[in-house]
Design a protein that fits this description.
Elements (H helix, E strand, L loop, with lengths): L13 H24 L9 H6 L5 H8 L16 E5 L5 E5 L3 H11 L13 H6 L1 H12 L4 H11 L3 E3 L3 H5 L2 H5 L3 E5 L7 E5 L23 H8 L4 H9 L4
Antiparallel strand pairs: 1-2, 2-3, 4-5
Helix pairs in contact: 4-7
Length: 246
């Protein structure tokens, strides 16, 4: 990874979404307390705090040892192999061998079970010392097979492996379809065509959520607001339209 440029930001406004979730959790906690004490309270959530709480051991490592973690590419410092690997068909898979047993399963999937008992790779501390060699072995194997072949072999061996999906992969994924993670909504102004959008979550057993609307069109409720909330009569509203005020 380049050392002279910052990490490229993603398109997801992570702090906004996380703060909304933490805010919702705060509401639930406050409601629970109100049921017991009868007292309400303010809920204070800052955007940066929500992201900070996802930094796992970064704060602890710095507080205890003064360690400032550097960028490490698509891998993790504390276990090997644990990271992203390119496949023969130019896709990506992730392996997460956090224990010796999981590494043994990956070796089985690779057809290289002898690696799991090697004096160089059999124990996690040994793999950490020989990180580059381990990652090279796994990368060479992953690069010799298509993604779906790797997933099938790892599933059979019980090795921790998953695909790195782009948005097109997600829309065609059987798991997303089985879980109804995408729901079709009609768009009247598009001649009745439907569009797939992310479904409601979490999914509740007794009171599941639903999506009733994709949102109003521009000005769809203007007349109702003018009449019902602001007290304009029909003639006044008509005049506003004629003068192109609304």
């Amino acid at each position: 990874m380049p050392k002279d440029t910052p990490v490229t930001p993603g398109s997801t406004t992570l702090g906004d979404y996380l703060s909304g979730l933490y805010g919702a959790i705060g509401v639930l906690i406050a409601l629970h307390e109100k049921q017991k004490s009868g007292k309400g309270q303010y809920i204070d959530v800052a955007l940066y705090e929500s992201v900070f709480r996802l930094t796992d051991e970064l704060a602890l490592a710095y507080a205890a040892y003064g360690t400032v973690r550097e960028r490490y590419g698509p891998h993790i410092r504390t276990a090997v192999p644990l990271g992203h690997f390119r496949t023969k068909d130019d896709k990506w898979v992730a392996f997460a061998c956090t224990t010796d047993k999981l590494f043994e399963r990956l070796c089985q999937a690779m057809g290289r079970l002898e690696l799991a008992s090697s004096h160089l790779y059999g124990v996690q501390t040994q793999r950490l010392e020989n990180r580059h060699e381990v990652n090279q072995l796994v990368a060479a194997w992953a690069g010799s097979l298509n993604r779906d072949e790797i997933l099938s072999l790892c599933l059979a061996a019980g090795a921790p492996c998953g695909p790195l999906n782009n948005i097109a992969d997600i829309f065609g994924d059987r798991q997303f379809a089985a879980r109804r993670n995408l729901v079709a909504m009609d768009i009247p102004e598009m001649d009745g065509d439907a569009i797939l959008i992310p479904n409601v979550m979490p999914r509740l057993s007794e009171t599941p959520g639903r999506i009733d609307s994709l949102g109003p069109k521009l000005g769809e409720h203007t007349d109702a607001i003018l009449k019902d909330l602001l007290g304009f009569n029909d003639e006044q509203i008509k005049g506003l339209h004629e003068r192109r005020v609304v």
